[in-house]
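Human
Can I borrow your eye for a moment on a structure tokenisation matter? Give me a protein, with the fold worked out from its sequence. Write it directly below this note and I will take it from there.

Assistant
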Amino acid sequence: MKSTNLSLIVGAAALAAVTGFAALTVPGEGGATEAKAATRLPVERSSLLCPEPGLSDLADTTYTSFTPAGKSGGEAGVAELKSSTAAKDEAKKGKEKSKGKGKAADPDKPVLALKAPGKPATAEVSGSDAPALVGTATGRLAPGWTAQQTTTVEAGESRGVLGVGCTAPDTDFWFPAASTAKSREDYVNLTNPDDTAAVADIELYGPDGTLKSDVGEGITVPAGSGVRVLISTLTSKAAEDVTVHVTTRTGRVGAVVRTADSRTGSDWLTASAAPAGTLVLPGIPADATSVRLVAFAPGEDDADLKVKLLGKTGAISPAGHEDLHVKSRMTAGVDLKDLTRGEAGSLQLTPAQDGRATPVVAALRVVRGKGDKQEVGYIPATGPVGAQATAADNRAKGSVLSLTAPGAAGTVKVTASAGSKGGTPVSKTYKVAAGTTLAVTPPVPAGLKGTYALTVETQSGGPVHAARTLTLPQDGIPMFTVQTLPDDGGTVEVPSAEQDLSVLDD
């Protein structure tokens, strides 16, 4: 066999190992090798990691697992969220001690298992002992699989609704809008899904540049386990705005930041979209009383940005904050006072000069309410919904879906799934005008019982960015959380290839 034929086979086999979808076919007698156009196929395996809530004995946590229907006709597969290895070991010790004293939960049993696409599955855990979860979905449950962790804490400094979409493992994460201020208690949560230990580094950048620390280097995250790091212990300097950069030397992790403020409560801060010259931060609530933009330029060049609010009728520049200068490797923060003026919107950051697009990362710190009735939430920069994006754990009341088209007008279809305990799916199509944000009460399944998922699919036009706000008020506090909806990666582009496998003479 000629070396070119061997190379093609090896390359296709390597692609199959990564995606599970590289195809090698044998053509007819002619023996011709023909490359076909790439196609998009459903993924066969997905991984998600849910951080350890670790908050309060008053915490109630709901896990929701969901895969959209109709995207794959493959094998049935499984979709399970299981306790981390360390949590299972602790549970086994407790079970051993409890022998003869009553029935203890099986630590090897999944916390949550999804049975079929199209209908959410839920599980609830109370108290501060809820573990980090490691999850895998295969077969027809893998494409678009999503999991939501929603924790409610009614009192104390950790009070609030803390929502996070469980994250896929990776090696590089950026978190603008963290803080080492005295009023804040922010933790970086790292979860390792693999059978070998991962080693991570945490870098901090404040308004004046790097916040030097030796203890943020070489953090070991044991196999199948989670680690929490209080970022204020990594530096002696207090700063209101800090950008956290998490990378791994070996292995991969899921990373998310849990913030807590003595005045405005708690929520999760998920990673910003990868550094880019143009960013979109969708879903600012209409009744926001404070919006703070935090941005960071990780490269060697300063960034000069135009700031625009994409509202109901079009784009405007916030008075006095039309531009933002971000110095290289220094965190910039600015209060955008009276930004929404009672109208929901999204923020767009673009290069101030054409042809000078300096990559940046960004996030918004959003506060609703006043006085001692305030609640905080975070909106990181995010990519468009693409082919499909999903937000799980929606209730009969309290959900708002924000759709923004930063460029050309776009049309999306929004599907409300069946309820976790009953209900019939419904769909509705929305057209989003160019340069605007459309905030809607999403469709609710007919006869809903339990919770449901929202799936957004691009139908036509330009890219649409989306975010879901879930509001669960408590004692006059507008407790809420915002989850952005980037493309769920349910399909992967795979080159097709045909190769003659017959032995060829040199």
